TrEMBL record:
Organism encoding this protein: Streptomyces beihaiensis
Reactions listed under catalytic activity: L-proline + a quinone = (S)-1-pyrroline-5-carboxylate + a quinol + H(+)
Record's protein name: proline dehydrogenase
Annotated ranges, domain Proline dehydrogenase: 44-299
Enzyme Commission no: 1.5.5.2
Amino acid sequence: MLAPLILAASRSDKMRAFVSAAPGTKQVVARFIAGETVDQVVRVVEDAAAKGLEVTLDVVGEDITTVEQSHAARDAYLELIGRLKELELGTRAEMSVKLSMFGQSLEGGHELALANVRPVVEAAAAIGTTVTLDAEDHTTLDSMFAIHEELRKDFPQTGCVIQSYLFRTEDDARRLAASGSRVRLVKGAYKEPAEVAYQDKAEIDKAYVRILRILMEGDGYPMVGSHDPRLIAIAQELARRAGRKLDEYEFQMLYGIRSDEHLRLAAEGHRMRVYTAYGTDWYGYFMRRLAEKPANLLFFARSVLTKG
């Protein structure tokens, strides 16, 4: 199994240095990262809007070690929201945030992350959009859900992410569906122990379908985060059975992966949102993309060998 090794490497400073210096890295990173600056990524938003797509924007970088870095992350999102406002793109783009980037793992991190993310949520609401709290490893989730619940008191459109490979997620889905939350369901992209997570792909997929049924039959707004054609077809059928209209759920896929499918779903009238990451601290995000699909790793290895 290559995925656990790649995920372990995502935490290694030595591997970070090696991958960053590899000759073919820049070419492969560009496949998954939309740019390094706000100006670069807003052009991607404009292009997506012209094609009938929506986006969710992620400023990459989660392994922070200081309060000052957490404030810088907050300010990066506020800068992004300011540019979206100037270009009147607020209704086409929402934000995705990792609370670790906002200081969640630091001393007093729960309160710090909440204090940092609140002005981002407020600014997003002011331009007609919203924020989704990304799920990270299982040790962070109780804090994330508590912050999500707190933010929804004033900004009920605030979303969150749940991961089908965790045993706890069916219970989380029932609670969130009952409360009418916006919920993105993904399989999960962190290295989790067998005590808390399914390790077998087939079991993860079965759990995904069970959880998706809960969301589709609930009172919330499901966001189907998957590139799997079979799961996409199942999602459409579950939505039909639940009596959901096309604007009562959406599909989400990653920038640079299955782009033709993005356009196909949008052409069929579905809401299709592209998860678009940008920024300079791309390593952790990039390694998780390699871990998710062996073809991505082969593409990277081929690029390194041909550029060496």
